[in-house]
Amino acid sequence: MNLNEALNADAARRRRECLIAKLSRPLSAEDQATLAAALGNPGVSSRAISRALGLMGVSVSSHTVDKHRRGDCGCRSETT
Ligand SMILES: [Zn+2]
């Protein structure tokens, strides 16, 4: 790998990763599955997810959850 490739790889990694993906990493596999299900469930509000994550020690705004749900974040390509 040359420097140019290294820089591109770093930029790509940063683009891919939004706060939701980054902050949910320490959660257990079970919690991550629950989070993924909640994110995909229109009946669960982004605010409720934000609050629940806050209780788990993961501080993330409902706005960030919203962006993630709309696919308006960097990690879209990784999850689909
Ligand atoms: Zn995201």
Mean pLDDT: 87
| Strand runs, count | 0
Count of all domains: 1
* End-to-end CA span: 27 Å
What does the largest sheet look like? none
Question: Which cofactor or ligand species appear?
Answer: zinc ion
Shape: elongated
Judged by helices, strands and strand pairing, the structural class is mainly alpha
Strand percent estimate: under 5%
- Overall radius of gyration: 14 Å
List strands and helices in order, with pairings.
Layout: H1 3-16, H2 19-24, H3 29-39, H4 46-55, H5 62-70, H6 76-79
The structure holds zinc ion.
Short description:
With 80 residues, the chain is mainly alpha-helical.
Give an account of the 3D structure.
By secondary structure, the protein is mainly alpha-helical. It has six helices and no strands. The protein has helices spanning 3-16, 19-24, 29-39, 46-55, 62-70, 76-79. Helix 4 (46-55) crosses helix 5. Zinc ion binds at residues 18, 20-21, 68, 73, 75.
